[in-house]
């Protein structure tokens, strides 16, 4: 009986070897995701030409409303300004979502993802601790035209609060 099992095992050996994946099949790759430092991007955004353009549009609307004596529109725009100031403070502290900033960053996020062949770009530390990551903070800050002062301020905040996002 032992001889028969041994012969059957030897006879099946070539089939077992053939069942393995051929050498030409590449091992699955780990997706690479981009990450960015939230605080740095929030600071860069609120000092950016993109934010300045948004503010300029609202200031123009406010001027037009004041000249037209449209008190309802003036009140609405002043409220918007106060809410945006509060939102910015909450975002810097990590207590509010940054959807408005991500919306403005969309063209650059897509460009960086495509150029660097990234699976996506997320706030640090990233959605999956097992994923390979590349920090794209400096690229986003470049696109936002962050000044050296803003970059220094972001660095200072990290030294003061190393665990903060």
Shape: elongated
End-to-end separation in angstroms reads 68 Å
The structure class reads mainly alpha
Our count of helices gives 7
One letter per element, helices H and strands E, the order comes to: HEHHHHEEHH
Domain count, please report it. Answer: 1
Strand content: 5-15%
Give the strand order, joined by hyphens, for the main sheet: 2-1-3
The pLDDT mean sits at 83
- Runs with pLDDT <50, length 5+? 1-23
Largest sheet: 3 strands, parallel
Give the helix proportion (percent range).
55-70%
The rounded Rg comes to 27 Å
The total count of strands amounts to: 3
Please explain how this structure is put together:
- The protein has 165 residues and is mostly helical.
- It contains 7 helices and 3 strands, in the order H-E-H-H-H-H-E-E-H-H.
- It has one domain.
- It has helices at 2-18, 38-46, 49-67, 71-92, 99-116, 137-143, 148-160, and strands at residues 32-36, 121-123, 132-135.
- Strands 2-1-3 form a 3-stranded parallel sheet.
- The chain is elongated.
- Residues 1-23 have low confidence and may be disordered.
């Amino acid at each position: 009986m032992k001889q028969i099992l041994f012969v059957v095992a030897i006879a099946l050996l070539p089939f077992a070897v053939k069942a393995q994946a051929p050498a030409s099949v590449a091992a699955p790759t780990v997706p690479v995701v981009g990450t960015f430092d939230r605080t740095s991007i929030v600071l860069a955004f609120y000092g950016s030409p993109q934010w300045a353009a948004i503010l300029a549009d609202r200031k123009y609307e406010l001027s037009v409303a004041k000249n037209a004596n449209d008190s309802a529109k003036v009140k609405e725009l002043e409220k918007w300004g106060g809410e945006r100031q509060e939102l910015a403070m909450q975002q810097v502290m990590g207590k509010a979502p940054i959807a408005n900033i991500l919306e403005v960053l969309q063209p650059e996020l897509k460009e960086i993802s495509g150029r660097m062949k990234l699976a996506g770009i997320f706030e640090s530390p990233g959605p999956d601790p097992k994923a390979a990551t590349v920090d794209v903070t400096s690229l986003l800050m470049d696109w936002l035209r962050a000044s050296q002062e803003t970059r220094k301020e972001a660095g200072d905040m990290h030294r003061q609060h190393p665990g903060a996002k």
